[in-house]
Amino acid sequence: MTNASLSPTDLRDLAAAGGAAPSLHNSQPWFFRSTGDGRGIAVYADRTRAVPLTDPDGRAMHISVGAAVFNLRVAAARLGRDPRVTLLPHDADPQPAAVLDLSRFAHTADPRRPDLYPAIARRHSSRLPFANRDVPERVVGELIAAADAEGVVLAVLEEADARRVLNLTAEAERRTAADLARQAETREWLRVEPATDGMPYQVLGPQDHDARVPVRAFTGRPPTPPAPTQRFEALPQVATLTTRFDRPEDWLRAGQAMERAWLVATIHGLRMSVLHQAVEWPDTRANLRDPHTGPGYVQMVLRMGYGPPGAPTPRRPVEETLEPAGPESTRRLPTEPAPVRGRPTARPWGRDGSGSGRAPSRGR
Predict the structure, then answer these.
(1) Do domains 8-106+114-120+315-323 and 123-305 have the same CATH topology?
(2) DSSP H or E stretch at residue 300
(3) Run of H or E including 257
(4) What's the rounded Cα separation, in Å, for the pair 149 and 133?
């Protein structure tokens, strides 16, 4: 009988795939640990990497961790495993966000499903202008089906709703720009020197010359002049991800749905980026929901289209994110998010202050 235990190489490949997921400000708020029997992997939210003013309830953190969980599922399938996922198991202390039981081997791959594994390394955000070209209905249908498979509703918005959501996003962006504490928190994640997390200035992208796309205006003093404005698409194609409830397990499912849809989009050459501003304020987030569609909670706003891929973001090394099972693991697991602070691995803009594994640097 084949040994079901995961080898060190298997664990590293899994952690590298999980670590390639998108996250708010590329904070990468996760770490991975082999299960005690050596036949699975647990995923934890690393609260020392929280963004507490922008994400006070940890919703965005859970969505990011959920995206990492989906990447692990894809990587496990590539290893010939049939992953069984338990979200927020109550029989573990400290509690992981998810545990993947990989003791079962997959008999055959489903030929109806695309191989998403190569897309993990190719997927990253594009904050650049897209072409004035509609996403084909066939591709839209695949994105909707991808989210639905995770129990989440992906809705590609018609013009009136798209403009409503973009206006709410612009309103939230203006509010954030006037909040000095939030601006300081964001600057802590901007990177002017090589780093393994955060946002290098090369990935930030230009502002829309016509102010139709409310791209987040990251602040700071980069070492080069700011990029000139560019003209973005006339009517951005916008989608929302909605769950029926608004609990941590729903956030984790939303993250898995987002990553699944994003990987499907990637294999079709479709670019995506996250318009996160409106979900960061309770009132603008509440107004994102279309009241005619029934109850639900919008977890994410996505912009999609065809255009340049954008620059990749750095990744933390596998040695930093993968821990052994058992008492030898010494990572602190705080119950409260850490205060806003800098990172010892890099210097934010205007202040003094390479990964291993097989997945190349990619991220939101």
Answers:
(1) yes
(2) strand 297-305
(3) helix 248-267
(4) 27
Q: Which of 24-33, 126-135, 222-231, 337-346 has the least mean pLDDT? A: 337-346
Q: How distant, in Å, are the alpha carbons of 41, 173, 279, 305 from that of 170?
A: 40, 5, 12, 19
Residue 332, both tokens: 């602190």
Q: In a 3-state reduction of DSSP, which class is residue 123?
A: coil
Q: Return the closest-CA partner of residue 219 out of 266, 180, 273.
A: 180
pLDDT at 245 over 70: yes
Quick one: what percent of the chain has pLDDT higher than 70?
85
123-305 has CATH 3.40.30.10 classification: no
Sign of the Cα torsion 343, 344, 348, 350 reads positive
**Distance separating alpha carbons of residues 118 and 97, to the nearest angstrom:** 25
Task: State both tokens at 325.
Answer: 């099972």
- Are the CB atoms for 25 and 51 separated by under 8 Å? yes
Residue 247 CB neighbours (<10 A): 14
CA distance 164 to 166: 5
325 versus 342: which is more confidently predicted? 325
CB 285 within 8 A of CB 164: no
Q: Cα separation of 29 and 10, whole Å? A: 22
Can you say how many angstroms the Cα of residue 77 is from the centroid of all Cα atoms in its chain?
20
Query: How much of the chain, in percent, has pLDDT values that exceed 90?
Result: 68
Residue 132 to residue 130: CA distance in whole angstroms: 7
Domain boundaries, the chain: 8-106+114-120+315-323, 123-305
pTM for this predicted structure? 0.88
260: its two tokens: 């699944």
CATH number of 8-106+114-120+315-323: 3.40.109.10
CB burial of residue 47 (10 Å; 0-12, 13-18, 19+): middle
